[in-house]
Every structure is written in structure tokens, then in C-alpha cells.
Inverse folding.
């Protein structure tokens, strides 16, 4: 699997241009996966030449990456995988992209996603589903499916993603790569198409933890343009704290979860114990409500954040309309996918007068209880572990007509999102059919670096490239 | 026809919502220029203001500071924690599809505005709350299309919501005026009414006096002058009474004010009101304020109108004079510091009385003359020098005014006393000189009758004699001294 240090060696041996050309060629060769919507070829090569001529330097000089197509970036449209923004050229770049470019990294393309990041399979893209890196019959996971597959296919050593309820962690686990959903507020959300303001996070997918650490170190930090960013705290740790106390979330180890996934989690627990850590079973009484809370609050925020796509100032605008209401209605009908509309409708419903208290407000109160419960556990435990998803990647089309079944796949990733906790997804092996299995480690607020450090000490490549 | 008798059966109840544009350099959530006056359309907007995907609001702390000052002016406590919410509706002047406002936890809590009327009554209007929010853009409708200008989108506002404590059109006008004074004195807004810095939504209802329930209200939106607030309230009150007297119902609705016709007309029914789907704005952390911060910011607020009223009353000014000064302070803010001149000498009661009276009786009338062009001269210095000369009996009040008018339009102040001397304005207070003139006058044949009358007890004729002295001295004689000398001579 390609990693950043190998790429940097290749740049040293050949040139940034050759490395970037190779990445672009690979992206084109593997286009049947539909991982990348638009390449930023021209701009990428100009930047590669600047690296080679010494005009651009930095920790990632010449290293190619892809950004999920909800990051505003130059060189290609920012579509959010929607008809609404199919031809939208961003006039500025996301803070995260700017920070990576400042260290010389080169964005070669924009990765596929569920339109506006609504989904867990990348089947909701207006430009077709992304196929799983291991089995093309299977989904990539989502919504950062294109980012996960581009990384797993070795097109790039890392990719940017967003995680609102599992959108980095789940595709990472479905494709056998590492993914981090940082503490809420670690990386600026400026310049990323908003989904749910209170749980949106910016993270990274890569083939190993060291690369995740490096990219996170560059991207993280307070940004005056995003008031919810936290004061700088992310600092890579040399080695993890010894004798950690770790809780295994028993609520996620029930019969509803594939036995092979539970086995891999238990194998990981054995390794942790062998390394001197204590692992105990823990349970959270509020966790069974997490999915319900999530699918009230997040659609509410989506309905609000997507109100700006009205055809007036940018993006798609419906033709031959006679009234303002018709302009809005047709524009939004044509520009949004079914899942976008479903969430806008749910969100509008739970916010409407007469229902606000019963749904939105109640969900927020339950969320507070969930937060309290996690905080209580973290008084005792350094981290919590469990699976990322109840299944490995499912067949394309299998769940698409059953939104509830699709939402159930998020059951283990949404709790950390609602609380704002950092959570990482690391490869834990494969099932018998060869599909990757991911393991999730959740920590208290701002424990991102220590979670990565713990996972790095356990990192093994035994299951890779079987 | 509504007779006074019918009108008298009813009581008017009015509540006013006032939108105040804050005097910040930049917008509430972006760095774009907040001054949209005379700017070409969509030239002072940032990607945040036009709702580009991925943009996030960055709260302007200056706007928060001004809200804190407004709270002081409204006698309202400031919330230690306040938050922003989103109010959703679709309209082309609203770029994000929602207005960022404060629905649930506004920054300014319940307060009270008190102000006097000319009849001596003091009106107390309770403030329900006031909150921070952003303004919307502006649409210009043409036959075929509508044009969107977002220059004003994102301008910081506070909306001041009163309780329905206002019971006449005169009170409504006075309340609107008082808010204007309060917000301008506290430095919250520039108070440019012509450019919509303050806009009033007036809720009016009529009910039989003594009735326990309020009548159905109508709301007249977007009034931008005190007079239109008064006229609209009066018009609506009468319109509603006419309906009620005919046995018809008042419809709860929004009405617009036509300033040319001096009439309101129906705009839309409130029954069709949309559901705004309010929700907390997760992009903006709560505003958390300590008492120390609030006190520090409010300590910058200068004297407010009621404090000035008390001071000016102490200086023996009456209601119209006081209100004239309060208005003029706003009218000439940044040009001439009308009240600041009084503030300068606040500890010297004699001089402050002089300056206050001078401003009311001489300076302000002069400034209001259409042909008068004010210059950069220091009016306080000029008034102070005139005060000294008057105190030293060197200037009569008539000459003082003439002198002031001449000097007020100069670009630079000369030495006032030498100028006055050269121009012959300095009055003679030297007894020996005046006695000569007095004697001259008393010996004139025309004075004989007056002297006789005076001796017979007619005090009034002394004025005639003083007048003669003044005339002979070409206005230079000190009239008080002249009178004293005349009395001494006659007796």
C-alpha cells in the first residue's frame, strides 16, 4: 500500500511531475470504480512543476491527494456529487485544502460521495455509485466513498473526507483503510459544503496511521473563519500511554453484528491486553437512542443548511418557470437527489411549529444525556472500542430502497458524532469472503492524537494484500 | 364620521418593534463594508453575505458591544449567555434561506423606556426584549423581472420589541423619537432615518375603554419617520373604530403605509403566515459575557436623554427648550457638539446656564437658517468669550447676538474682544462717561414729562429714559448702569 514516505522517496528519485502524472494515470485507469468525479489535472501538473523547480516546498511537497467533492477547491468544479452544483466553480478554497497546499501537497481530483454527503454507500451520487476497492459488486461505503476507494486503490496515499455520522469511518472500514473523525472543531469547516453544522467534521483517510497523523497535524488548528474550531491541541505522540484502561462497548457486540466482525474486535482486544492494557466491557444506556437522535437533529440541520440552494445566486436553476415558488420548487426538485429531499422533508417536519418540542427539542435533550453518559465513562476509561459498522460492505443496490436499513448501518458511528468525540476506524482484518473489517476507537474530547498513537502501536499489516 | 364622542369610547393600544441598524464598520457575520449608502448593487458583499456553500458566520464583536450599550439605554439587563437562531423562509433577498437572529435567548432582556410628554406626563413603555439579527437584502421589482441587491444583507440590527404600553398616537411618536435619541446617544446607530437606519413596525388595536381584552391588531410595517409612526397609528385607530362601529371585524393583518396618501392598505393576511422553523444556529457559539465585560463596555456610554433632561431642568430650561437641545445634539452630531459644550462647564452653574440658553436661543436658530453655512470654528470657545464679555458688562445681550452671528460664519476666530471693540459692540460701563450722556438726556426738553411722571410714581417711564441714553450712546451704554444713574439723578 502506498504511503506518504514512499511517495516522497519516489519524488526524490524521479520528480513530482512524474509522481503526479502516475497518480492521474492510475485514476484514469481505474475510472470504472467511479471514485473520482473530476480530475484537477492541469492545475495539479502546474503545481508539480513548481515543486520540481523549488517554487513550492513543505512537508508534503509534491504528494498527491484527492479531496471529497464537498471541499471547495480550485481546478475542477465542486459538485457535492449533485446536479445542483454540477457546474459550480469555487471562488475560494477550503481552509484544510489551503493548509495542505501550503505544505506542497497536490490535489489531483475530487472524490465521489453521496450527494451533499447524505448517505452511507455513495450510491446517492448524482454521478453514479463508487465501487468498493476490494469487490466491485459491493458499495464503497459513504459518504466519503470516493475518498476511501481512491486511497485503497493506491491512486493517492491519502484523501480528505467529511464525517457527520460516520462518513469517514464506515467507508474506511469497508475498504480497509484508516480513517479519522476528529474531535468536533479540530479542523476548520470553512470552505466545506455544510451538511449538519453541529456534527460536521473534516478528517482524512490514509493507508497507515503515521500518514493520518501527519495530515492531521497540518490541517488541524483554530481558524478565525470557523468560530467552532478549538484552540490548537493536536500534537502527534511518540508512543501511547501504557496500561490504558479501555472499554469495549458491549451494546455494539450483540447478535445484530456479524460474528466475523465481533471476532476481529475480540482479536484486537487480545492484542491490547497482551500489550499491557486493561479491557473491560462497558454499556451505555442512551446509546440505543443515538440513531433516533441523529436522524432528527441532522436532518433538521440539513434542511436549514440546504436552504441556500435556491437557484438565485449560483448552481442549478430550473428553466421555463412562471412564478418564484415554481422556480424554487423545480430548481430544488431537479438539483437534489431523493435522499436529499427525504432529509430536507424530515428536517422541516421536526422543526415545524407544533412538532419542534416533541422531536427536535426532545432529541437535543436526549443528546445531552448521551453526552453525559460518555463523559462519565471517560472518567474511568482512556478509550472505548467496538466495530465501525454491523456488516462489511453490502451489495450495490441492496439497501437503496430501504432507507431505514441503510440508516441502521450508521448505528455505531453516530454516537461519537452526536457527542463530538474523536473516533478512528482502523483495519482489523478481513472476513471469509475477503471483505475488510474495521474497528473503531473512540476517545474523550481532544484525545485524537492519543487514539492514533494507541492504534499505531497495534498497527499490523498482516491482513493487507492477502 | 367619527365624532369625538365615539372616539372617546375607545382606547388605542400600540406596541412597536423597532429595527436599528448598528454603526459598525463591517457586517454582523462578515468583513464586508457595512456602509451600503450610494454603493453600486452587490458591491459590498462577501461570500458569507451571499451564502456561498461552505461559508461560515464570524460574529462581529463590535456589534455585540453596541448591543450591550443599547441594553444600557433601554434599562435592560444583558444576558450572560445569549445565542443565535435561524429563521427560515425562502425569498430572493435572503441568501442563506434563513435569517440569523436570536429567537430563544436574546442578548438584551426586559427593560423600560421612560420619557416626558409636553403636557408633563411621563410615559413608561416596557421593553419585552431586544435581540441581534442580520438585515436582508433589497429587491427591485420590474415588470418582467426582479433585481436582487445584497449590499444590505448581513447588516447588523437590533430589534427592540416593546410591550403594548402605548395608548395614543402622540405617545407612539414620542416613543419612536425617544428610541432614536437613546440609540444615537448611546452610539448604537448613526440614526440616518433617510437611509433606513431605524425602521418601525407598529402594532395597533382599538378596544372599548375598560374592556379586559385588547382588540384585534393590525401591523403597519417599515415606517421610517416619527411622523409616519404617529399618522399611521392615528389612521389605523380611526379605521378600526369605523369598522367596529359598523359591527364589522378587524382583520389581523400586515398593512403598508402610503406616505403620499397618508393611508394604510392591506398587504397580506397573518393567517397565511409561514412557519419559520426556528432552530439554534450551531455555527455560532453562544455569546458569554461576564458582569465585568458588560460594565466595561457600558462605561463608555455617555449621558442619555433622561440624564440630560434632569441637568437641563436644573439649568431652568423648559420642556420645549430641553427637547430642542436633545434633537439638535443629534442633528449636529459630529459637526457641533451642542450638549458637549454644556458638559464642558457642567460644574459652573452660571456659565452652563448661559451656554445652554445661548445654544437654544441663538446657536440652534442660527444653524437652522437655510442660508447659514457652518464652518470649523470652535463654537464653544466663541460662546465662552462672549460669556466673559457679557459677565464683564462689556457686551449687551443685543450686541452679543450680533457679534455672535458675525463671528459664527468666519473660517477662523479673531480676538473676539478686539473685534467687538473695532466694530463698536463693546458697551460702555464707565460711570463717568455714562453720567455725561445721562445728564444730557435729562436736560433735554423731551425728557421733562417723563421725569415728572416718574416722580409721580410711574416706574415704567424709566425705560423711555434708558432708551434715550442707549440711543445717544449708539447702543454702547450699559443699560443697567444707565438706569441706575438715571434713578440717582432724578431722585
Amino acid at each position: 500500500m502506498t504511503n506518504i514516505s514512499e511517495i516522497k522517496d519516489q519524488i526524490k528519485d524521479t520528480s513530482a511531475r512524474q509522481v503526479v502524472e502516475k497518480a492521474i494515470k492510475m485514476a484514469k485507469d481505474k475510472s470504472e470504480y467511479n471514485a473520482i468525479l473530476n480530475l484537477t489535472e492541469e492545475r495539479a501538473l502546474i503545481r508539480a512543476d513548481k515543486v520540481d523547480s523549488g517554487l513550492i516546498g513543505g512537508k508534503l511537497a509534491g504528494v498527491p491527494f484527492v479531496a471529497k467533492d464537498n471541499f471547495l477547491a480550485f481546478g475542477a468544479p465542486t459538485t457535492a456529487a449533485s446536479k445542483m452544483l454540477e457546474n459550480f466553480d469555487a471562488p475560494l478554497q477550503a481552509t484544510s485544502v489551503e493548509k495542505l497546499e501550503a505544505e506542497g501537497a497536490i490535489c489531483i481530483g475530487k472524490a465521489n460521495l453521496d450527494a451533499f454527503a447524505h448517505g452511507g454507500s455513495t450510491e446517492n451520487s448524482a454521478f453514479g455509485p463508487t465501487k468498493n476497492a476490494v469487490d466491485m459488486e459491493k458499495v464503497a461505503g459513504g459518504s466519503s466513498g470516493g475518498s476511501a476507494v481512491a486511497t485503497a486503490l493506491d491512486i493517492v496515499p491519502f484523501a480528505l473526507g467529511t464525517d457527520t455520522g460516520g462518513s469517514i469511518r464506515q467507508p474506511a472500514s469497508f475498504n480497509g483503510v484508516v480513517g479519522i473523525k476528529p474531535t468536533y472543531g479540530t479542523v476548520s469547516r470553512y470552505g466545506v459544503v455544510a451538511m449538519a453544522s453541529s456534527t460536521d467534521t473534516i478528517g482524512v483517510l490514509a493507508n497507515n496511521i503515521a500518514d493520518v497523523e501527519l495530515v492531521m497535524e497540518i490541517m488541524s488548528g483554530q481558524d478565525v473563519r470557523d468560530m467552532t474550531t478549538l484552540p490548537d491541541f493536536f500534537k502527534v505522540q511518540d508512543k501511547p500511554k501504557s496500561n490504558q484502561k479501555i472499554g469495549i462497548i458491549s451494546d455494539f457486540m450483540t447478535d445484530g453484528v456479524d460474528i466475523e466482525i465481533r471476532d476481529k474486535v475480540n482479536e484486537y482486544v487480545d492484542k491490547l491486553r497482551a500489550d499491557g492494557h486493561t479491557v473491560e466491557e462497558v454499556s451505555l444506556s442512551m446509546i440505543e437512542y443515538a440513531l433516533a437522535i441523529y436522524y432528527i437533529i441532522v436532518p433538521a440541520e440539513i434542511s436549514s443548511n440546504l436552504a441556500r440552494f435556491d437557484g438565485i445566486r449560483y448552481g442549478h436553476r430550473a428553466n421555463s418557470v412562471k412564478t418564484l415558488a415554481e422556480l424554487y420548487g423545480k430548481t430544488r426538485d431537479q438539483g437534489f437527489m431523493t435522499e436529499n429531499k427525504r432529509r430536507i422533508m424530515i428536517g422541516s417536519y421536526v422543526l415545524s411549529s407544533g412538532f419542534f418540542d416533541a422531536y427536535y427539542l426532545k432529541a437535543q435533550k436526549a443528546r445531552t444525556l448521551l453526552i453525559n453518559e460518555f463523559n462519565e465513562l471517560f472518567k474511568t476509561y482512556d478509550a472505548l472500542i467496538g466495530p465501525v459498522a454491523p456488516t462489511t460492505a453490502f451489495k450495490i443496490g441492496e439497501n437503496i430502497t430501504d432507507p431505514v436499513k441503510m440508516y441502521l448501518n450508521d448505528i455505531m458511528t453516530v454516537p461519537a458524532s452526536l457527542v463530538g468525540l474523536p473516533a478512528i476506524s482502523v483495519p482489523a482484518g478481513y472476513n471469509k469472503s475477503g471483505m475488510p473489517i474495521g474497528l473503531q476507537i473512540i476517545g474523550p474530547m481532544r484525545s485524537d492524537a492519543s487514539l492514533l498513537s494507541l492504534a499505531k502501536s497495534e498497527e499490523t499489516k498482516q491482513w493487507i494484500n492477502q | 364620521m367619527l365624532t369625538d364622542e365615539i372616539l372617546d369610547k375607545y382606547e388605542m393600544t400600540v406596541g412597536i418593534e423597532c429595527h436599528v441598524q448598528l454603526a459598525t464598520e463591517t457586517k454582523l457575520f462578515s468583513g464586508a463594508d457595512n456602509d451600503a449608502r450610494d454603493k453600486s448593487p452587490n458591491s459590498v458583499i462577501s461570500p458569507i453575505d451571499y451564502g456561498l456553500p461552505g461559508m461560515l458566520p464570524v460574529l462581529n464583536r463590535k456589534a455585540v458591544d453596541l448591543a450591550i450599550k443599547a441594553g444600557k439605554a433601554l434599562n435592560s439587563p444583558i444576558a450572560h449567555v445569549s445565542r443565535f437562531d435561524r429563521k427560515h423562509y425562502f425569498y430572493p433577498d435572503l441568501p442563506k434561506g434563513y435569517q440569523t437572529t436570536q429567537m430563544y435567548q436574546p442578548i438584551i432582556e426586559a427593560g423600560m423606556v421612560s420619557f416626558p410628554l409636553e403636557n408633563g406626563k411621563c410615559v413608561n413603555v416596557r421593553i419585552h426584549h431586544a435581540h441581534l439579527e442580520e438585515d436582508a437584502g433589497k429587491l427591485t421589482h420590474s415588470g418582467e423581472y426582479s433585481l436582487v441587491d445584497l449590499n444590505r444583507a448581513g447588516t447588523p440590527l437590533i430589534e427592540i420589541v416593546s410591550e403594548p404600553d402605548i395608548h395614543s398616537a402622540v405617545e407612539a411618536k414620542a416613543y419612536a423619537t425617544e428610541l432614536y435619541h437613546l440609540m444615537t446617544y448611546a452610539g448604537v446607530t448613526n440614526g440616518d432615518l433617510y437611509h433606513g437606519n431605524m425602521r418601525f413596525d407598529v402594532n395597533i388595536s382599538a378596544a372599548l375603554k375598560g374592556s379586559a381584552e385588547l382588540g384585534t391588531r393590525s401591523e403597519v410595517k417599515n415606517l421610517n419617520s416619527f411622523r409616519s409612526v404617529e399618522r399611521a397609528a392615528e389612521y389605523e385607530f380611526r379605521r378600526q373604530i369605523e369598522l367596529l362601529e359598523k359591527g364589522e371585524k378587524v382583520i389581523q393583518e400586515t398593512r403598508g403605509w402610503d406616505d403620499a396618501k397618508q393611508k394604510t392598505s392591506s398587504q397580506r393576511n397573518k393567517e397565511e403566515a409561514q412557519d419559520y422553523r426556528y432552530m439554534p444556529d450551531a455555527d455560532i457559539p453562544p455569546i458569554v459575557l461576564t458582569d465585568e465585560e458588560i460594565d466595561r463596555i457600558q462605561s463608555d456610554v455617555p449621558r442619555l436623554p433622561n440624564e440630560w433632561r434632569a441637568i437641563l431642568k436644573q439649568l431652568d430650561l423648559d420642556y420645549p427648550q430641553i427637547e430642542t437641545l436633545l434633537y439638535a445634539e443629534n442633528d449636529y452630531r459630529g459637526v457641533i457638539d451642542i450638549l458637549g459644550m454644556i458638559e464642558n462647564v457642567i460644574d459652573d452653574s452660571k456659565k452652563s446656564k448661559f451656554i445652554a440658553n445661548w445654544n437654544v436661543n441663538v446657536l440652534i436658530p442660527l444653524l437652522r437658517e437655510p442660508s447659514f453655512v457652518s464652518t470649523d470654528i470652535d463654537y464653544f470657545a466663541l460662546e465662552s468669550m462672549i460669556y466673559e464679555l457679557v459677565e464683564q458688562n462689556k457686551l449687551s445681550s443685543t450686541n452679543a447676538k450680533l457679534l455672535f452671528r458675525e463671528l459664527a460664519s468666519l473660517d477662523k476666530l479673531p480676538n473676539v474682544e478686539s473685534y467687538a471693540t473695532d466694530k463698536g459692540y463693546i458697551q460702555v460701563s464707565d460711570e463717568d462717561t455714562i453720567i455725561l450722556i445721562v445728564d444730557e438726556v435729562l436736560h433735554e426738553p423731551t425728557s421733562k414729562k417723563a421725569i415728572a411722571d416718574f416722580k409721580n410714581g410711574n416706574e415704567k417711564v424709566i425705560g423711555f429714559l434708558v432708551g434715550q441714553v442707549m440711543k445717544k450712546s449708539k447702543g454702547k451704554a450699559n443699560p443697567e448702569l444707565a438706569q441706575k444713574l438715571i434713578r440717582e439723578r432724578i431722585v
In short: The first strand of chain A starts at residue 36 and ends at 39.
